[in-house]
Amino acid sequence: MSETDISKHAPRDSNALTSRRVAAFAVKEVLENNNPLEQVLAGQDDYQSLEPRDRAFARLIAATTFRRMGQIDAALKPFVRQRPTKLVYAALQTATAQLLYLGTPPHAAVGETVAMLKSRGSSKGFANMANAVLRNIVKEGEKYAGAQPPKVNIPGWLRGEWERVYGRQAGRKMAVQLMKDPILDLSVKSDAAGWAEKLGGVQIGTETVRLSKIGDVTALAGFQSGEWWAQDVAASLPVQLLGDIKGKRVLDLCAAPGGKTLQLAAKGAIVTAVDKSETRLKRLEQNLARTGLKAEVICADALDWQPEQADFDIVLLDAPCSATGTFRRHPDVLYNKTPKDVANLVRLQDKLLPKAAEFVGPNGTLIYCTCSLQPVEGQPRVDKFLQNVPDFRLIPILKVPGLALPEGTFFKGGLRSLPYYLEDKGGMDGFFIAQLGRKE
User: Fold this and answer.
1) Burial state string for 180-211 with b = 16 or more CB within 10 A and e = fewer than 16
2) CB 338 within 8 A of CB 411
3) Edge-to-edge strand order for the sheet containing 184-188?
4) How many whole angstroms separate alpha carbon 125 and alpha carbon 128?
5) pLDDT beyond 80 at 166
6) What letter does residue 377 receive in the DSSP assignment?
7) pTM over 0.85, yes/no
8) How far is 231 from 234, CA to CA, in rounded Å?
9) How far is CA 324 from CA 80, 120, 161, 167, 181, in A?
10) Which whole-number Å values give the CA distances from 58 to 15, 72, 213, 258, 375, in the listed order?
11) Is the dihedral of CA 72, 73, 79, 85 positive or negative?
12) pLDDT confidence bin for 8, thresholds 50/70/90
C-alpha cells in the first residue's frame, strides 16, 4: 500500500489516532504536492468520518505544524540522523507540534503517533525510532526549537524577498504574526457596533466585527438570518474604497468564494459575479441565499467571457494570486507555493487586467487587488497595464474609511497592507489594491 492510499484504506481506529493520522497525511501532501491544506483535508475519507471536534483538532495540528515548521525541524534535527519516509517524518513533525505548541500530554502525543505508525505495514518499521525521537523531544525539544528565531518558520525564498522589499523589521513582525492563533473577521450588512456587542467582539473600521478566535461560525447569532459573512478586514477594503455604489452596475471578476460580491450587493449595487470554478460558485450562491442578497452568478473563464452589455460602472478584479498574504489563517500557503507558481500567476494577471479593462464603461472604475505579499503581484502589474493601456489612469488611494493604517500603506498611489498592521488588534491580511479610472 502506498502512502497516498493510507487515508482511504485505513481500518477503524480511535478518533484520537485517526485525527493524528489525518493531520500527518495532510502535512505530507501539502509539502509533497503543493496542494492547499483545506483541499487535502476535505479529500480524506477519514477526515470526513470524524466528528466536528476531531476534525478541528486534526486541522489545528496540521496548521500549527506549518506555523512552526522551521522550529519543529530544528527540534527534530539532532535526533533524526537519517530522514525516514515523507509520511513518517510528517508524523514526527505533527507530534512535535503537539508536544511543544499545543500542550498535548506526552503520553497522548507520543503513544498515539507510535500506535499510528504501528498500524500500517509501510510505517511499522519506524515505530521504535519515532518513539525514541519523540521521547527526546519531550526532554529537549523546547531547547532546540526555542533557540531559533521566529523567522525560520518562513521559507527562505519568501523571507528573503520580504526582508529585501519591506525591511528586516517588517519581516520579523510578520514572522511573529505567523505564530499567533488567527482571529475571525465578519463583514456585516449594517450596524457593526451593534453586532460587535452581540457577538462579544470589537468593531474594526466601519464594516467589520472581529472575534478573538475562530470557532463554529454557524452557531453564532446572525448566521442563520444572514446578517454577516466571514471576511478578513483587508479583503473588505477594495469595496469599501468605492464609497456609495447604490444602483451602479458592478462586475466582480474571479468572484468566488464571494465576500466582495456580498459586500457589493449589500451596498445596493447591481452585481454580476463571474468565476470559472463551479464548486466555489456554489458557496457563493449559498451565501447569497443565506444573506438574502442578489447577484447574477455566471460560471465562465473571465478571459473568454463576453457579456451582452460590457460597459460596467465598476469592474473589480480580485486576481488569482499566490495568496501569501493570508498566512495568518492559512499558514500552509507558505509551503504550497513555489517561485514558478508565482511566475505563472503573474502571467495570468497580465492577461486578466487588460481583459477586465474591456468591461469598464465611460468614466468607469477598475479595481485590481491581490491577497499576496509578493511585490511582483502588486504595483508592477499596474505599471505594466498603464503602459500598455493608455486610456486608463491611476486614482491614488490616500486613506481607508475608519482605519488608521501606517503611512507606508499608501505607496505610489496603491494600497499595500502587511500582516502585522493592526497587530494590537490581531493583524490583517497582506493585500495590494489599486484603483484605476477610464480617462474621459
Assistant:
1) eebbbbbbbbeebeebbeebebbbbbebbbbb
2) no
3) 202-204, 208-211, 184-188, 228-230
4) 7
5) yes
6) G
7) yes
8) 8
9) 30, 35, 12, 17, 17
10) 10, 17, 17, 27, 33
11) positive
12) very low
Task: Return the amino acid letter for 145.
Answer: A
Dihedral, CA atoms, 424, 428, 430, 432, nearest 10 degrees?
A: -110
Long-range contacts of residues 161-170, Cβ cutoff 8 Å, at least 24 apart: 161/374, 161/375, 162/373, 165/375, 166/418, 170/418, 170/420
Alpha carbons 84 and 130: distance in angstroms, whole number:
10
Please check the confidence at residue 3 and state whether its pLDDT lies above 50. Answer: no
Q: Residue 366 carries which DSSP code?
A: E
Q: What is the mean pLDDT of the chain?
A: 94
Specify the residue for cell string 499608501: 410
What is the pLDDT at residue 12?
Answer: 52
pLDDT band at 439 (very low <50, low <70, confident <90, very high): confident
Query: What sign does the CA torsion over 320, 322, 326, 329 have?
Result: positive
State the Cα–Cα distance between residues 111 and 123, nearest whole angstrom: 15
The yes-or-no verdict on residue 119 having pLDDT over 90 is no
* Vertex 263 angle, CA 362 and 317, to 5°: 50
pLDDT tens digit sequence for 120-151: 888 888 999 999 999 999 999 999 999 999 99
Cell readout for 249 is 452596475
Contacts for 212-220: CB closer than 8 Å, 24+ residues apart:
212/183, 212/184, 212/426, 213/181, 213/182, 213/183, 213/184, 214/182, 214/183, 214/184, 214/329, 215/184, 216/52, 217/184
Per-residue pLDDT at 351: 98
| Catalytically active residues, by annotation | 371
Largest CA distance in the chain: 73
Report helix, strand or coil for 349: helix
Q: Which residues of 374-392 are buried (b: 16+ CB within 10 A; e: fewer)?
A: bebbbbebbeebbeeeeeb
DSSP string for residues in 265-295:
HHTT-EEEEEES-HHHHHHHHHHHHHHT---
Distance CA 200, CA 188 (A): 14
How many residues are listed for the chain in this entry?
440
